Amino acid sequence: MKKASELKAVVIGGGSGLSIVLKGLKSITQNITAIVSVGDDGGSSGIIREDLGILPPGDIRSCIVALADDESEMSKLLSFRFESGMFKDQSLGNLLIAGMCYIKGNFAEAVKAVSDVLKISGTVLPVTLDDMRIVAELSNGEKVIGESCIPVVSYALSSPIKKISVEPKDAKAFNFCIQAIHEADMIILGPGSLYTSVIPNLLIGGIQDALMKSNAKKFYCCNIMTQRGETDGFTAHLHINALETHLSGKNKIFDYILYNTNTNPTHHVLKRYESEGSHVVFPGNLNFYQDKYHLIGDDFLIIKNNYVVHDTEKIIERILSIVL
Q1: Whether pLDDT at 281 is above 70
Q2: Considering the entire predicted model, what is its pTM?
Q3: CATH code for 4-37+127-323?
């Protein structure tokens, strides 16, 4: 039987949700691989992508920082954003990865080099090295291209997302991602923006097949809050339904579902979320899935730095009780 520190963990997703899980995992094991979506085209990442023709570094940078020593000066440096001038709102970490990309000659080597400088507790990998874009088909038939545009257009047109795809259609998984999935003891999918951070990873060639063949314990961590223009009115049941809609054939890529049961928290922070069109995700009709998945419900909601986040300590504890 392996010790917790010997476990090989793979976390798949993007955005802030992935970073939070990584911070919780690094206190348990250093054998962590973060497989990160590279479909971002907004903000400072989008500017770098457009100007320099490289993959967006934003989510990659967040994961590197999450796996680094929280108190290190380099970690703080990577998180720094300029507040004025021509670099206003630009992340120094994004610029560092971009610069390293030119020095090393490719994006993957740049990510590795920056990771090595910070001596991170694990490995961060782009899900693909292809120049992927996220495409959404809305319920009204409208086609929207670009991660940053999809929720904005969906909300503006009051037309929910029907299906997500990626371009190019033959985008292939980075080979080290496939290797990490095959060697993993546990795999965590999410949390994160369902249609623009989580599902796109599953549409990259080779990822679903690798997950199907993996002997790891596989978990889907459902979001706690809905996202305006993306999962308005969604329950945990609808999150799972959306995932299954995007799976090939009868693929079953996870065994356990973690979902929040605290649906009526009283906190002033939630008022801000509600004013922005975001609400707590209710379980919904999860009984529909009880014969297919192991359902793990608990109060996973905590308030941290005035944000609603997952209680990663409790989530990791529940996962380890199964894996070990």
Answers
A1: yes
A2: 0.95
A3: 3.40.50.10680
